[in-house]
Amino acid sequence: MAAADISLPGVNGVTLIERLVERFPDLGCIALTAHEDPGCLRQVLAAGARGFVVKRSTAADLLQAIRCVLAGDNYVDPALAARILSPRHGTQCDPGNLSERERSVIQLVALGYSNKEISSRLNLSIKTIETYRTRATDKLELHSRAAIVRFAHSNGWLAELQ
């Protein structure tokens, strides 16, 4: 696991991430930056980073990014993801057709928790969490974590659990 500021003095952080990932392919890099623009996000992800956290985020957000990347997932700061990604379905999806458990799972996924962490938090098996997640994403036609974050943000679900 490595975290890098993309505005390092003397070396470009994006270049540093590229070099780290090239030398250590299994290394999970997280960019920690003050830059909150889509171009910066695209550069960092293209360089091989698996996480993107803005410096104004809380320590809990950084910790969540670390957990997510260690679990093998990618992480984009939810506030940034919700702001810069335009929803494909957005508010057109009806959250009313989700069960309470499906809603809970989707909220936790949107907050960056892995299936294993959700399983532990809700005291359910990982397989059960996967089933709830699949049912919810099928109902809502959400096909990526970014889409889940956008949906949760547009429905005010991210603020409810923070």
Keywords:
four-stranded parallel β-sheet, elongated, 55% helix
The averaged pLDDT comes out at: 81
Give the SSE string: EHEHEHEHHHHHH
Largest sheet: 4 strands, parallel
Strand order of the largest sheet: 1-2-3-4
Give a verbal description of the structure.
- With 162 residues, the chain is an alpha/beta fold.
- It is built from nine helices and four strands, in the order βαβαβαβαααααα.
- The protein has a four-stranded parallel sheet.
- Helix 4 (78-84) packs across helix 8 and helix 5 packs across helix 8.
- The longest helix has 15 residues, at 126-140.
- The protein is elongated, with a radius of gyration of 16 Å.
- The model is unreliable at 86-92 (pLDDT under 50).
In summary, what is this structure?
This protein has 162 residues and is an alpha/beta fold.
Can you lay out the helices and strands and say which pair or pack?
Elements: E1 2-4, H1 13-23, E2 29-33, H2 38-47, E3 51-54, H3 59-70, E4 75-76, H4 78-84, H5 100-110, H6 115-122, H7 126-140, H8 145-154, H9 157-161
Parallel strand pairs: 1-2, 2-3, 3-4
Helix pairs in contact: 4-8, 5-7, 5-8, 6-7
